Amino acid sequence: MNKTKTLKFIIPATVVFAAAFLNTAAVFGSVTTTEPPTDSEGIYQISSPSELYWFAEYVNEANTAANAVLTSDITLNEGDLSGYNGTDENDWEQWTPIGNDTYPYCGTCDGQAHTIKGIYCNYPTENYIGLFGEI
Prior knowledge:
The protein is mostly beta strands and 135 residues long. 9% of the residues lie in helices and 15% in strands. The longest helix has 12 residues, at 49-60. The chain is globular.
């Protein structure tokens, strides 16, 4: 069954994963999210930013034991995020970490030596911020 939803995320880091709903495409900020395919064991095969955003949302909606693998390198935001001061306007998509205090992530995520670039999070007063939040 396909899943659809709208999301909004940003973060600077390297790794993988995103969220769930009932139709293939959804919107997260200006990112259209897409449910990734699964293998015969039900492991999500993540190969794009839209699939990673979907996986994060999916996990954060109580699907904490979901498993995934990266099947390619992923760039969430283009440009130099390293020098960003946290206050200037930008058009980067904000990332919401996989796992939170309500739904800590307990699945597995195998990067298979792939990278995730351009993760942007601007939550100056929050803890557990990165590709993964609370695990």
